[in-house]
Each structure stands twice: as structure tokens, then as C-alpha cells.
Design a protein that fits this description.
The protein is α/β, with parallel strands linked by helices and 505 residues long. Helices cover 32% and strands 25% of the residues. It has two domains: 12-244, P-loop containing nucleotide triphosphate hydrolases (Rossmann fold, 3-Layer(aba) Sandwich); 262-339 and 423-500, P-loop containing nucleotide triphosphate hydrolases (Rossmann fold, 3-Layer(aba) Sandwich). The strands form five sheets. Strands 6-7-8-3-9-10 form a six-stranded mixed beta sheet, sandwiched between helices. It has a six-stranded mixed beta sheet with strand order 16-19-20-13-21-22, with helices on both faces.
């Protein structure tokens, strides 16, 4: 798509946009435009200013300097509803659907003047059905959102945005929670929307997506625009160089380590609680210092397995041993006490926004900094500061509230919290979701170092390339059963995907 350049007058123009939060200059005179029928990709590291830019366009941030122009006319949206009324729709990375309501009721919420206004259920159902059909989603409008998978919720959110007269569609990491089969479907939809004349602003960290859908690419770094160029004129190395401010280098190939001893042994493991995707009869072993991936499409039970091992859900049968001792965590506190830590895929499960970066980082390891019930703040800070620097956490200070950080940096703080607890078994659920290219490389390098030091790592990822690049081996789950184990030399996208879909590995 990168070869087809936009024509005509700009649909949306950003002119010298600047925004400062306290001492942080989130945007510094950023300018570019979006034409009808193009997908304008905005790329940048976490903390580069992408989230603030999106919030300005969406009407969530109003006290900025500079100007927005829509079809040549200056506009300043007072709130997101005003932006939507002007045909500017935004799909945020964190979904805004109300789980307890039906799809149709969620559609109606965006149309009603008041949340207490009477509902026209027939009209809402018809509108929802038409929008779902546009995305070829075989879902009934009366279905409750809480019964949908994450991928289905993402697509319903997009369908809801498209139900209006959209002229500009802003998409913030729309595939971050999707598997490959859903990603291709979504990207095909984005391409079709552009062909229909909609101007799309597409924020992504995934290089494959960027070069598939982009007409033009704008790179942000430290709140400033580095360049805006036709996608066909940008190489991958040039893009990465623009993102990080230095030439890209290839990550080292992980070295397969022979396990020194069995750390975790699972036999006949199962879970059939109604709140989780069930799995049954799992059997596998993890060695000391192994870095093992878990692959599976939605409904495979992969994420459930990780939460059960951490004690966030209970297993119903089977045996588990940790370093030769029986293991069955009654809850997260018990898991931490046994040296098991979890990084959840939803950062809101791991980060308390009102607390400082420092407090979040040590929340699970305060005992290491306490004497007679009193926390040694100097020791706490001395431990967190170098680790935070090593992970390149971008924050005004360690005392800054976590909610003030970008989503990717919140994810880094959550990982830092896990590592400071010095776990024997580190369980990671999609650890680089929403993290930019440079930060992803940092996290990969760090995880390799942690594994080399003797910590066993079990991680799930929705990114097949990440599984192949990082894992010593991959356990594949399909429909709640362990269908394959792929060794390092067998890891390629086709084999992984086939096994994930329940086919032969």
C-alpha cells in the first residue's frame, strides 16, 4: 500500500502542536497532515508523544498550543463527543466497551445524549447489526460484551466507531491484543477503509504492519517529529534509526541452554472453572534457566495456564512441583512467597496508577527493604534507580505517579516489580504488548540475562516472531490441550501457526 500516495487537500492537519505536562514537554511543534484515502502511520518509542497526540486529536486534551484543521477549517474539540460529532473517531488501545452490557447497548451509549436517556433498542440493534456486518463479524447484537474474547471486543469497538459518519479514524495499536488470524483481517479492513476515502491515523510498533498498510510514515521522538515520508521511500533500518536516534543493529541469536535441573514439573494439570478458559491434562517440565514460550490462539487456555500457576485462578486437578517440592499457590501472595511472579497482559492488573514508580516497583518485595516493620527508603531507592535506568523507564522521576507514564513505560515498571522480587519462576503474559521497537529489544535482552542467571521464564506471546526469536522452545496449546513442543531449530511462523490452530507441527 505504501506505493499509493495520497492526493487532494488534507482532511486533517496538525499545525505546530505543543503540549506540556508539568516539566515534561510531551509535544514540541509537531506538524503533519492526513489525506483522504491514506493510512498515515505514526511511529515512536514509548514516551515519544504518540499518546498525547492521539488525545489532542480525539478531544481528550484541549489545553495545547498550535492548531487542528479539519477539511481546511480550524477546529478545537471541547471533548471526545465533539470530535466524534465532526467525524473524527478514535480507537484507543485500552478498550472502552462496558462488559456487562450487550453489543447493541454499547452502540447506543455513544449515541444517547445522556446515559439515562430512554433506549430505542430496535434502532440500536439494527445499527449494531449493520456495523458488525460491515466487518463481517458473526455476532448477535444482543450478546453481552463480557462473553466475547479480547479479539472480538477489539473488532466490536472498531465497528462501533464506524457506525457514525467517520471522516478520520485514529487507531492506537489496534492489533496489540490480536492473534495472527485476526491481525490479517483487521489490516485488510484498514486498507478497505482507506480505499473508501477515510483518512486513517494508525499508531503501531509492529514493523510488519507498518510496511503493509502505510501510505506515509511520521516518526516522533522525544515529542518532536523526526520525519514524514512516503512509506515506499523508508527502509526498515531507516525507520528504526529514526525511532531510536541511532543505527539499528540485529539482536543476538539466543543460545539454547541445556537445563541444569528441573525447576517446574506439571503432570495431569487441569482447570475447568467457569471464569477461565479451561484446559486439561497438561504435562511438561521447565528447566532452571530455560526461556520457554507458550503459544495458542484465543480459547487455547494459554493465558489461563499462566494465571493458574501464579495462583490468580485455581487448578482443579493434577500435580505440580517447584524445585522438587509440591506447589499449589492459593493466591498471588502465596505464589510470591514461593518465588513465582506474574506479569499480566493487562498492565492495570500489575500497576497501581496513583502510586509512584518507586512504590509500584517495590510493591512485591518490600520485605527486602524492611527492618522491624520500617521500610529503608534509601535502600529501596538504591535498588530501583539502577534497575529503572537499565530498563530505560522514561519518567520525570521515581516519585512520579505511574498513571503519568506512557502505557509502554507502565509495562516496564510492572516488569521491574516482578524482577525485584527475585523470582525462581517468572511468568509473563504477552510481556511486550504495546511496547515500541527499541523497548522490545531492551526487554528481550533483559529476559535473556535473567534466564542466564538461573531464573526460569515461561511467557505467552501473541507475536509469532517474538516466540521464535526469544524461546529456547515453545509449548503449543490448542483447545485446552498441549498439542506440540517445538524446539529452537523448529521455530518458524508456519509451523507455530499450524500447531496453534490444532494442526500438525
Amino acid at each position: 500500500m505504501g506505493e499509493r500516495l495520497p492526493h487532494g487537500e488534507p482532511r486533517l492537519e496538525l499545525v505546530e502542536l505543543s503540549k506540556t505536562f508539568a516539566e515534561t514537554r510531551a509535544l514540541d511543534r509537531v506538524s503533519f497532515d492526513v489525506r483522504p484515502g491514506e493510512v498515515h502511520v505514526v511511529a515512536g518509542e514509548n514516551g515519544a508523544g504518540k499518546s498525547t497526540l492521539i488525545r489532542v486529536i480525539a478531544g481528550a486534551v484541549t489545553d495545547y498550543t498550535g492548531e487542528l484543521r479539519l477539511d481546511g477549517r480550524a477546529v478545537r474539540f471541547a471533548n471526545p463527543a465533539a470530535a466524534s460529532a465532526h467525524g473524527v473517531a478514535t480507537i484507543h488501545q485500552e478498550l472502552s466497551l462496558v462488559p456487562a452490557l450487550s453489543i447493541a447497548d454499547n452502540f447506543e451509549l455513544t449515541r444517547a445524549a445522556s446515559p439515562f436517556a430512554p433506549r430505542d433498542r430496535r434502532r440500536a440493534s439494527a445499527a449494531a447489526a449493520a456495523a458488525l456486518a460491515r466487518l463481517e463479524l458473526a455476532l448477535e447484537p444482543a450478546v453481552l460484551v463480557e462473553t466475547l474474547s479480547v479479539a472480538e471486543r477489539q473488532l466490536v469497538e472498531i465497528a462501533r466507531a464506524l457506525a457514525g459518519n467517520v471522516r478520520v479514524l485514529v487507531m492506537d495499536e489496534p492489533t496489540s491484543a490480536l492473534f495472527e488470524r485476526d491481525v490479517d483481517r483487521l489490516l485488510s479492513l484498514v486498507e478497505r477503509l482507506a480505499r473508501d476515502g477515510i483518512g486513517v491515523v494508525y499508531v503501531s510498533h509492529r514493523l510488519e504492519e507498518i510496511f503493509r498498510v502505510a501510505t506515509r510514515i511520521s516518526v516522533l521522538r522525544d515529542g518532536r517529529r523526526v520525519f514524514t515520508r512516503p512509506a515506499g521511500e523508508v527502509t526498515r533500518d531507516e525507520l528504526v534509526s529514526g525511532l531510536v536516534g541511532k543505527a539499528a543493529s540485529s539482536p543476538p541469536v539466543p543460545r539454547v541452554r541445556a537445563p541444569r535441573a528441573v525447576r517446574l514439573r506439571v503432570r495431569g494439570f487441569g482447570c475447568d472453572t467457569p471464569s477461565r478458559v479451561p484446559f486439561d491434562g497438561l504435562e511438561f517440565e521447565l528447566g532452571v534457566g530455560e526461556l520457554v514460550g507458550v503459544a495458542g490462539v484465543d480459547g487455547s487456555g494459554a493465558s489461563t495456564l499462566l494465571h493458574v500457576l501464579f495462583g490468580a485462578a485455581r487448578h482443579t486437578h493434577g500435580e505440580v512441583t517447584l524445585d522438587g517440592e509440591p506447589y499449589s499457590a492459593s493466591g498471588p501472595r502465596a505464589a510470591f512467597a514461593r518465588g513465582v511472579a506474574l506479569l499480566a497482559s493487562d498492565r492495570h492488573e500489575s500497576v497501581l496508577g496513583e502510586l509512584s514508580v518507586l512504590a509500584n516497583a517495590t510493591l512485591s518485595s518490600l520485605g527486602a527493604f524492611s527492618r522491624a516493620g520500617v521500610v529503608d527508603r534509601a535502600a529501596e531507592r538504591a535498588a530501583v534507580a539502577p534497575a529503572s535506568s537499565r530498563m530505560r523507564v522514561k519518567a520525570p522521576s521515581l516519585d512520579a505517579a505511574a498513571f503519568a507514564l506512557s502505557g509502554g513505560n507502565q509495562q516496564k515498571v510492572a516488569l521491574l516489580r516482578c524482577l525485584l522480587s527475585k523470582p525462581r519462576l517468572l511468568v509473563l503474559d504477552d510481556p511486550t504488548r504495546g511496547i515500541d521497537v527499541a523497548a522490545r529489544a531492551d526487554v528481550h535482552e533483559l529476559l535473556r540475562e535473567v534466564a542466564a542467571s538461573g531464573t526460569t521464564i515461561l511467557f505467552r506471546s501473541t507475536d509469532l516472531a517474538e516466540l521464535a526469536a526469544l524461546s529456547d522452545r515453545v509449548l503449543v496449546l490448542a483447545r485446552g490441550r498441549h498439542t506440540a513442543t517445538l524446539a529452537r531449530g523448529e521455530l518458524d511462523d508456519a509451523r507455530l501457526l499450524s500447531a496453534m490452530m490444532g494442526g500438525a507441527a
